[in-house]
């Protein structure tokens, strides 16, 4: 008599993590910097350096307006301008990306509704809320709910292990979403310091020119002296302004991400605790 063989049913494949719909960010930030540099240098030579901004149409002469004065800041001006445009461009990029990540509705309201659905053991409603909200938060909550449903249909392991698996699914889904949330923030953090340092470099170069003008022929040439002072002050102002914008942008986006991760942790903990409260230890 042939031995009967039993085959273990194949485990159902895990569903792929749901992708965020909408704008999720620019991965090639280097291209943004290149475009900003092109715009900055074209603006420096053809707008700020326009002959109409100077006496007798000579860019080496006295400036007639603020654009001519900025042009006198020298070649460091378009470099700082590049940094400033990059901060603005990446800030807009982060605003659009985080708007997608947060989803269509209020994050606080979504979190409260999910917790209320969990208290009522209404997981169908919780899934509907995720489908309606969309975004990174909804994706992570959806992954946790799927893990919850999977553990309900799994036997042979202890309840504590099931709770740990639900928490693990939540953490894995969060880690998949975090790179999108934090994309390009290191560049903004770098520009915070780089703006000030570049402005300081322009300041030093301008002061060197001023001292050279003073050293030449006693009193020095007033045009050369004023050019050096303009270069120093303009680059200082632009450098501080660039760092100021970068600091505000970086701290704003970091604060938003902190709020989002806190909401994720709160909901993930609620899902795990709901499972623990609703299920008894298997024999």
Which helices and strands occur, and which strands form pairs?
Layout: H1 29-48, H2 66-71, H3 76-102, H4 107-119, H5 123-133, H6 135-152, H7 159-182, H8 185-215, H9 222-278
Helix pairs in contact: 1-3, 3-6, 3-8, 3-9, 4-5, 4-9, 5-6, 6-7, 6-9, 7-9, 8-9
Describe this structure in words.
The protein contains nine helices and no strands. The chain is rod-shaped and about 90 Å long. Helix content is 73%, strand content 0%. Residues 1-17 have low confidence and may be disordered. It has 283 residues and is mainly alpha-helical. It has helices spanning 29-48, 66-71, 76-102, 107-119, 123-133, 135-152, 159-182, 185-215, 222-278.
Mean pLDDT, nearest integer?
83
| Beta-strand residue fraction | under 5%
Task: Quote the distance from N terminus to C terminus.
Answer: 36 Å
Please give the radius of gyration in angstroms: 29 Å
User: How would you characterize the largest beta sheet?
Assistant: none
Based on CA inertia axes, which overall geometry fits? rod-shaped
Class by alpha and beta content: mainly alpha
What is the subunit arrangement here? single chain
Considering DSSP H and I runs of 4 or more, what fraction of the residues is helical?
A: over 70%
Low-confidence stretches: 1-17
Please work out how many helical segments DSSP would assign: 9
SSE ordering: HHHHHHHHH
DSSP strand tally: 0
